[in-house]
Amino acid sequence: MLTILLDGVAYGMLLFLLASGLSVTLGLMNFINLAHGAFAMLGGYVTAILMNRAGVPFLATLPAAFLVPALLGVALERTLYRRLYGASPLDQVLFTIGLVLMAMPIAAYLVGDEPQQVHLPAWMDGRIEVHSVGIGVYRLFIIAICGAIAAALQIFLIRTRFGAQLRAAVDDARVARGLGIDVDRIFAIAFAVGSGLAGLGGALAADVVGGIDPSFPVKFLVTFLIVVTVGGSNGILGALFGSLLLGVLDVAGKYYAPSIGAFIIYAVMVVTLIVRPQGLFARGDGR
Amino acid sequence: MWRYWIPGAALSAMLAAAGAARADDNTVTIGMILPMTGPFASTGRQERAAAELYMHEHGDMVAGKKIVLEVKDDTGAPDVTKRLAEELVGNDHAKVLMGFGLTPLALAAASVATEAKVPEIVTAAATAMITEKSPYIVRTSFTLPQASVPMAQWALKNGIKKVVTLVTDYGPGVDAEKWFAEAFEKGGGTIKQKIRVPLKNPDFAPFLQRVQDDAPDAVFVFVPSGQGAVFMKEFVERGLDKAGIKLIGTGDVTDDDLLAGMGDSALGAVTTHHYSAAHDSPENKAFVTAFEKTNNGMRPNFMAVGGYDGMALVYKALEKTKGDASGDALIAAMKGMSWTSPRGPVSIDPETRDIVQSIYVRKVEKKDGALYNVEFATMPDVKDPYKAAKH
Amino acid sequence: MSASDAAAVQARIGAHLQRRARWRWPEIVFWLAILALIFVLPSRAGIINEALIAGLFALSLDLILGLAGIVSLGQAAFLGLGAYAAAILASWGFAEPALGLAFGAAVAAVVGLVSAPLLLRGGDLTRLMVTLGVSLLLGELANRNSWITGGADGLNFSIAPVLGLFPIGFTGQRNAALYSFVVLFILFAIARRLAHSPFGLALAAIRENRLRAGALGVDTSRRMVAIYTIAAAYAGAAGALLAQTTQIVSLDLFDFHRSADVMLMLIIGGAGYLYGGLIGAAAFIVLRDVISAATPEYWEFWIGLALVILVLAGRESIVAAAARLIALVAPRAAGRGAA
User: Fold this and answer.
1) Hey, of B73, B88, B89, B136, which one would you mutate to test binding to chain C, going by the most C CBs within 10 A of its CB?
2) Which chain B residues are Cβ-neighbours of C290 within 8 angstroms?
3) Cα(B353)–Cα(C94) distance, rounded to whole angstroms?
4) B172-206, pLDDT tens digit by residue?
5) From CA C169, how far away is CA C247, in angstroms rounded?
6) Which one of A165, B261, B310, C23 has the lowest number of neighbouring Cβ atoms within 10 Å?
7) How far is B303 from B271, CA to CA, in rounded Å?
8) How far is A66 from chain C (nearest CA, A)?
9) Mean pLDDT, residues C257-266 taken together
10) Residues of B in contact with A210 (CB under 8 A)
């Protein structure tokens, strides 16, 4: 049914937005940032709080949902994260888990335990039916916005000078530095953008997942990791197609075979990794 | 090398110190084991607030004994819960264990309750068989069958013939589905489909699509509190309400804790439950006002009233035993105890030690500008059907 | 190299290994201290038991991560398997704990053996995610088959006294701790022996550089499968102990947070020298208990803060304070200390 397909695409797009930041830090900087979900949570809270307490319209909160986590990302990157770029992966895991463990009680203390709801404007609430294929207006909006962002990121990477520098830094940081590229600045910006995208994803996801609550980062951590692994941590397109595949399979699986629905996403990941250990769309060097 | 032993000694000292007991014959310690962190933290929050409110209102002395409340985070793990229960009883000399947000956690403490002969008052978990696991378990929350069967009865009386059930795939959800289906089909209704949704489910879309495909008169829903909001939203967004499908279920889906924030998509949902913050009685009005005042406007929900009544039960039992806090005396006193709770009249069934209470049919409406579950029908003295069927 | 030269080198390596394998007195003090703690603080036997079992679980992770360099986020799979195996066996009437322990370890080992080939390809991230995926899948399987596993309600059962003599219920908490201690010690001694054997040397080579080890003629695949199976058995034993000393199992044993917690414990204590898991487990569990008693709602914050500070201050420098002790037990990952 096409409706299910579209629902799956919408879900996949949301996953892409949320996980793209993780893909960026993992693929670009080889840094395992398990605190990624906390940035998504922050973006969700920004939108919810601005809307519920300050009456700001939904669309107007979205730039803030991007900027606040991005700024926080820059601040943390400059002060804390950068000390650990050379550290062992185990230390990175420990550190980022520590950050998440700190973020959740802070959220509970400042905002409270109840899920903060995001109430969409009325024009987004409806449904469009075209020849028995239906899709919620909001889901269409998600597909449109995430698609636009994905396209923008891809163009940015391929067409702009900064993008070229970024790709160079990823390929071989030492050589890039030798060519005069300010690798540190590039990493900082990449981290900020990744965190900002996570925040935006959190804001957009808030309606779909029932509100933002303090346990959001750990609830979705596994999902993010699955997306990144299946898609391959190569770049935007890999993450995009990986997310779409998982989104569609997950939604379709739950529809056609609800009793095994939850299995699908884990099984797909395991099978993918057996067949292609580096993820579906990664580079051949198996990183 | 000594630098290595210092942390070791420090840890051991912490262990020893933390275990130092306050043995006192005139103190009755109540050990509350609740989810204070994690996805069910709101349960812990509500219950603790309610228990503290009760103590605040009624003082901390009962029949010459001083009541002390100790709250522990269960961390969601049954092995930790069991250890906490053992420590509360063994080291802190707790005379009563209370709380338990999930079935496995209540079961984990059951063996401690039996072996140590300490009453275990379940104020949150709702699977029916819990009270059978120890002769020292008493419940003040509710059971899913207790809430689901009346829903089936109401549905049958109100022209609903075809239903699709949609529940979360874990203990309480399965209970709700089973008992609703049985009662509904026995009364002549048809269950067209039984959908089970994974507990960690962020998206109801595919499941709602299946509901829509069957075009039933109503969909019976059970989801843990917290997921009710997203379910409502997606239900309305897909236009299921306009397609004439009624939303019925147990009150967990319109949890008072979250109802105010759910938005208009929740309007019109009919649910059955044992407590609504809008219950029209002087006891409840006093309870809600006091609760909101001491908790920054937080509205009490059915978890809160479970904790409140748990404390009430302990106080009343102690009064009846004139201060005898031994497990057997307390249990004997609790059996058959009845009083008026903020939710309505309640009593403890002497045979099953489970709660007997009124189940209300309510509809979500706007009252004073906020959403409430407004009761419009009452079924009094509902015993847990699961155990009633066995006798 | 002539035959006699080769024999001489082998003899030297053998003697070196034997020297390293001797128990040092700080180790003996360590184990006696734990035993003493159980008798000196009987009221805390419950949490000591929890720490011992967590230590065994962390040891199992150390076997693969510290010794062989295999990363895994799925050790919880074996914890859960061992626990459920022991629980189901007991609920079918075979309530002798030793039997359940062996059964739990065996079931976990079999699954470990079967799933080990999945780990041979791909990089670290792949391994992390495959192991995680397997443990989540097993959790789902356990949820589905609630007729045997009890589903989300869990399974509770009663257990016979250990060897018919030592009850381990509510009144037998000290016995439970002693039971766990004995099992942990025996398994630790075996692991220690393994680490100081040619097998252990081969694992160290694989950990340092798998390609090079293979080029040197080490059968890396077989070794990795072997240690993974052994580690699975250890984790299964930990699970069985957990089930038996608490008489309850539930689905959260397969959860991601179990695998994450044990990895935290191992990293805190330091991987590679076998004591790290035990120390990290003890530290984590005691700290968590003390902090959550002080603040049931916000204890995670303080643990997180402690972790962040630990990493920033340099886990290495803190561990360096015990560096001499470590060097006595087993040379660290640096690869130095070869003949």
Assistant:
1) B73
2) 14, 18
3) 32
4) 888 899 999 999 999 999 999 999 888 776 678 88
5) 8
6) C23
7) 16
8) 25
9) 90
10) 202, 226-231, 233
Q: Mutation test of the interface with chain C: which of A28, A76, A82, A90, choosing the one with the most C Cβ atoms within 10 A?
A: A90
Smallest Cα distance from C198 to chain A, Å: 27
For residue A12, give the chain B residue with the closest CA: B203
Judge residue A53's burial from the number of C-beta atoms within 10 Å of its C-beta, 0-12 exposed, 13-18 middle, 19 or more buried. exposed
Of residues A13 and B6, which shows the higher confidence score? A13
Contact B169 C283 (CB under 8 A): no
C92-151 residues touching B, CB cutoff 8 A: 143, 151
Residue environment code for C232-243, b if the CB has 16+ CB neighbours within 10 A, otherwise e: bbbbbbbbbbbb
Chains near A (3 or more Cβ pairs under 8 Å) = B, C
B-chain residue closest to C173, CA distance: B86
What predicted TM-score, i.e. pTM, was given to this entire model? 0.88
Helices then strands (H, E): number in chain B?
Answer: 13, 15
Q: What is the pLDDT of residues C7-57, one digit of tens each?
A: 888 888 888 878 777 888 888 999 999 999 999 988 889 999 999 999 999
Give the whole-angstrom CA distance, residue C335 versus residue C339.
11
How distant, in Å, are the alpha carbons of A84, A159, A257, C122, C146 from that of A21? 18, 20, 32, 23, 38
Cα→Cα distances C46→A64, B76, B86, C114, C326, Å: 49, 17, 8, 35, 29
C: neighbours with 3+ CB pairs under 8 Å?
A: A, B
ipTM given for this complex: 0.85
Beta-carbon separation of C293 and B18 below 8 A: yes
| pLDDT (mean) for C197-209 | 89
User: What one-letter code names the amino acid at B74?
Assistant: D
Look at residue A194 and give its three-state secondary structure: helix
**How do residues B86-130 score in pLDDT, each as one tens digit?**
999 988 999 999 999 988 999 999 989 999 999 999 999 998 889
Burial of B22 (0-12, 13-18, 19+ CB in 10 A): exposed
> Which residues lie below 8 Å from residue A16, measured CB to CB, with a gap of 6+?
A146, A150, A227, A239, A240, A242, A243, A244
**Residue ranges of C 117-136 with Cβ closer than 8 A to chain A:** 118, 121-126, 128-130, 132-134, 136
A83 in reach of chain B (CB within 8 A): no
**Cβ-count burial of B12 within 10 angstroms (0-12 exposed, 13-18 middle, 19+ buried)?**
buried
Q: DSSP 3-state assignment of A275?
A: helix
Report the distance separating Cα B114 and Cα C265, nearest Å. 34
Among A193, A270, A191, which Cα is nearest to A230's?
A270
CB under 8 Å to C238, separation ≥6 — which residues?
A: C53, C54, C56, C57, C60, C79, C82
Nearest CA in chain B to A114: B42
Q: Which of B170-184, B302-316, C166-180, C211-225 is least confident?
A: C166-180
> How far apart (Å, rounded) are the C-alpha atoms in residues B98 and B120?
6
Element of type H or E holding B355: strand B355-367
- A108, C264: Cβ pair inside 8 Å? no
Contact residues on chain A for C134, CB-CB shorter than 8 A: 270
3-class SS of residue C252: helix
The partner residue sitting opposite B37, judged by closest CB among C143, C156, C300, is C300
Cα dihedral sign, C205-C209-C210-C213: negative
Residue type, C262: V
Partner-chain contact A219 B203, CB within 8 Å:
no
Q: Which tens digit of pLDDT belongs to each residue from B34-89?
A: 999 888 888 999 999 999 999 999 999 998 899 999 999 998 899 999 999 999 99
Please give the structure tokens belonging to residue B10: 């420090």
